[in-house]
UniProtKB/TrEMBL annotation:
It holds the Pfam family TetR_N. Residues 1-33 are annotated as: Disordered. Residues 1-18 have a biased composition (Basic residues). It comes from Tunturiibacter psychrotolerans. GO terms for molecular function: DNA-binding transcription factor activity; transcription cis-regulatory region binding. The keyword Phosphoprotein does not apply. Residues 54-73 bind DNA. This is TetR/AcrR family transcriptional regulator.
Amino acid sequence: MKKKSTPRSTAKKKPRQKRTYESPARQRQADETRSRIATAARLLLTRNGYAGMTIPAVAAAAGVAVPTVYAIFGSKKGIVSELLDQARFGDDYHALVNEVQQVTAPLERLTFVSRIARRIYESEVPIEDLLRGAGMLAPELASVEEERDCQRYDRQLLVIDSLHKARLFRPGLTRDTARDILWCLTSRDLYRMLIRDRNWTPQQYETWLNEALRRELVKTT
């Protein structure tokens, strides 16, 4: 008696999924292209002003195609955001952030708020002056600043929560109100008014802000 042959499975084999990975060399090339475009944009901004920093002009100066600029930055606003972030978040900023991450005491952490605010606002002044040119506020600059203000409001929650958990708020101050006060006092508009309009030094601003934050947020002992 013949043995019955085992039927072959008719189920289709699943196709092998391609491994998704990003080549280090490709990423390095992308970073270099991004940096080259940003450098070209800043040179054009310095030489020709904001109006002269067009996407086609940036692409030509960087030696890339116009679609490449759009693919990396999306728009002129994206270039503006990149230039400001490069100025704001340099080595000094990251050193301060690394330092504050080692601090656990709420009051000691609060002192870093004024130091970081000064560092960011002081660093962005040269780029903002170029963008504002002749007293005109570029729409892209206003949009980027609005986004950064929202991010600042979110990030400051860590400071507020640490003070709240330690019961360090001054009497009658709620968590939400304390958060609003912190956000308001650390605004770049206030920095501009004191530094540009009233001729304060950055050190005066930092000292005043640190004292104001303690006075408005922290209970007296």
